[in-house]
Amino acid sequence: MLLIHCPYCKESRDQSEFSPAGAAFIARPESPEGISDEEWADYVFYRTNHKGNHWEQWVHTNGCRKNFLVERSTISHQILQVAPFGARNSETEL
Amino acid sequence: MRLAQHPSHQVDYSKSLNFIFNNKRYKGYEGDTLASALLANDALLFTRSFKYGRKRGLMTAGVEEPNALVSLEIGGRYTPNLKATEIMLYDGLSAISASNPNAFDMRAFIKPLHRFMPAGFYYKTFIKQKVWAKVEDRIRAFSGFSKAPTEEDVDVYDYIFHHAEVVVIGGGAAGISAALEVLNNSQKERVILVDERSQLGGELFNEFSSDEAAMKWHKDSVNRLLSFANEDSERFTLLTQSTAYAWHDQNFIEVLETITTAESLTSSEPQKARKIVHRIRAKEVILATGAHERPMLFEANDLTNIMLSQSVRRYLHEYGVISGKKVVIYGNNDSIYKTAKDLHVNDIECIVVDVRSSEDPIEIVSELKDSGVKVLQGYCIVKALGSQRVKGVEITQTKLQDNNWQVFGDTQTISCDLVATSGGFNPVVHLDCHNGAKTYFDEVSQSFLPQQERDNREVCGAVAGAGAWQDAIIDAKNKAQFTLNALGAVSKLKQEILSENYSNYFNVSQFFTPKEILNKQKVFLDLQNDVTTLDVALSIREGYRSIEHIKRYTAMGFGTDQGKTGNINGIAVAAELLGIPLSELGTTTFRPAYTGVDFGAMAGREIGDFFDPQRYTTIHDSHVASGAEFEVVGQWYRPWYYPETGENMHQAVHRECLAARTSLGMMDASTLGKIDVQGSDAREFLSRIYTNAWMKLAPGSCRYGLMCNEKGMIIDDGVSTCINDNHFIMTTTTGGAASVYSALEMWLQTEWSDLDVHLNSVTDQYSTVAVVGPNARMLMKLLCQDVDFERENFKFMQWRPGTVCGVDARIMRISFSG
């Protein structure tokens, strides 16, 4: 059970308030019609299952309902930092 | 047998309690456990074993007990498979053995066949031969566990959330010392001390009769802690009779507190919660979980009244109880001499058998010999004698040669009625390992010690290898200083000096596993699952090499005790038979929960009406008045059919369908999801979300839409209406309402944040009724006078605002039921 800091509510809350929403920074192809099935499949299905520090999306489902970015270690489950959407490199207090 | 009163005893001799065990009446005292009270009454038989139906008594005095499983109370308060060593006695208690030791037992009756029933017997005989389904019920009825409860639980359970800077787990000498060190050296840090027993002190009570300093330190320290708990309750919380059973990521610790009193279990009045789960989020954790003693291995080591040495001491000191008159104390470390001394002081005849030879005589040995206690060094027990209760032991000489134990010489017989054994100590590393830590095998202490360095966690006392209580206290203080430093409460670390060789668990010798003994029948490793050394040998012969596989093949370490006494011995035996070092074989995985947790406690108050929200439409009452049967869709209670007198479901549904086809039918469709979509890009948004086009849908019209996800799978469908160019109302399926709303929000927040669109769920704000059938138009005309319902003026897939029976409405002409 994680304790997650919501960058919008600015509070650390229990994991049960949040939902995971997959890996972050998966760029949606600019023109889906113009790419091959392989490229589309790569976008939809294939993920690296990264071991180590990993950026992912979470939603504060039972809170502000905002999507945000979380950098989490997939080994220790430690959360290294969180960021609002579109502000990957900004410093966020924990 | 109860001894004369002594200040070390933690029972209140002025408060006598009555209780019933296996339908017989007994008396005990306040402060007794069910186990100690029965020992005091010389009631030694507790249960029959899981597989062979062997009669068993107590082996331990605590959480590690493999044998003494009982069910507590009856009816709505029935709780199966509790350990008698953990049940605090109360007046009127009633308990029954999980498997009655005094009744006829089929498993024991077929004793001559036991040697044909090794590990894997049931699998090979029944499952592989595909007859398991026919015999499963009958075989399971034989198992040595309590019956499952049949009645609804009448008790209430709760859970409480805590946040703390420091959680200390374990309230023995080390835990008390660590908690005090933190409290004394910090100002505002919140501290929680958790201990599974009802009294703080752990194994320290065992030192009381021989060491007044222990008694004094205990009294002073516990008083100090209690005054913190009373006067500074914001800072310090003390949880006794509370077992920390799981440690999850980010220092999230779950603790089960048992609140069992005579009032709470025998009264029919509404009571406080019987058990509480404390969910604690901690910054720093100090583990002072102690160590469990492991038994020595010999033939028939499961006979009644063969107990662990420290458990015999605990019964003696904490409860003033001993279950024998002539005791053989047997082991491989110096702690056995303390047991001998304590028994000797209490005028109980005892003989010490030590597998280690007498090369380095220690003070306590000569002291004991001088006082007349017989000490045999370089001897081992090969076999216990007796049919149910131990009547004697066969011993022979032994020595450690080239890293192997050799047994030699003639056997002698010693008569006795109690055997206390100590084969070293297993640190309670379970919680640490729940949270990902690894153990390592330490040659000095002959144990799997917890990983040394970890963030936000210290280990102290016996779990870190300390034997003597004085060392545990100092070790705990030193480690608490690190914790305080990590919290920023102290900048300069104070460290006190420990005694020499403090971490060798009383000079414990190498695991005693001579082949001559391992190859015998009925050398039990895991008493709860009836796993013997021969079972481990068989699994290795059949090709298993990993300890995880050996565990699963033999069932060693499963059950309610999770192998707390037997597992490490089993690993040592496997290592011996495989010819590899213990450090290479490693341990099995320690997983939550450390001890059994009641389902009731996990559910807390979220049962019955609070289990799941129930959603009703705004016109629910009228359905009830019309005699509707309801079906549950998600959390909604949706009218299902309206039976008339004597009708079953099929008849009612036929009648309703016929009415809809030939005349008129109505349905409450309010449960459909409704999402209000507004903004200058609303039209563009719908076009992207649905597979069909929305750019030309005129205000006043509706359109059916199909929604797909990125994988191309249909996730939802429904009709959306255009109110105006910047405003649409989308309907979703009943079950998809929440997930569609979340998906739409996700698209707007992540990929399409440039769109000017705002969403609002209005599912509960609008009541929806489908009116269908050839007479639908006629009814609408009657109900609503301000809309023109003529075909050519109100076309298919259009909507009109109107007033229905005085209520503002949007009326859509759409096809809903085909």
Blueprint (SSEs and pairs):
The complex is a heterodimer of chains A (94) and B (818).
Chain A: E1 3-6, E2 11-14, E3 19-23, H1 37-44, E4 53-59, E5 67-73, E6 79-84
Antiparallel strand pairs in A: 1-2, 3-4, 4-5, 5-6
Chain B: E1 12-21, E2 24-30, H1 34-40, E3 47-48, E4 55-56, E5 69-72, E6 79-83, E7 93-97, H2 106-109, H3 121-127, H4 132-140, E8 157-169, H5 173-184, E9 191-194, H6 212-231, E10 236-239, E11 242-248, E12 252-258, H7 262-266, E13 275-287, E14 291-293, E15 306-308, H8 309-319, E16 326-331, H9 335-345, E17 349-354, H10 363-370, E18 374-377, E19 379-385, E20 392-401, E21 404-415, E22 418-422, E23 425-427, H11 430-434, E24 439-442, E25 447-450, E26 457-459, H12 469-487, H13 515-518, E27 524-526, E28 531-532, H14 533-541, H15 547-554, H16 567-578, H17 582-585, H18 599-603, H19 620-625, E29 629-633, E30 636-641, H20 649-662, E31 665-668, E32 673-678, H21 682-689, E33 702-708, E34 714-724, E35 727-732, H22 737-749, E36 758-761, E37 769-772, H23 776-783, E38 798-804, E39 807-813
Parallel strand pairs in B: 1-7, 8-9, 8-13, 9-10, 13-26, 15-22, 16-17, 16-22, 17-18
Antiparallel strand pairs in B: 1-2, 3-4, 5-6, 5-7, 11-12, 12-13, 14-23, 19-20, 20-21, 24-25, 27-28, 29-30, 31-37, 32-35, 32-36, 33-34, 34-35, 38-39
Helix pairs in contact in B: 5-6, 5-12, 8-9, 14-15, 14-16
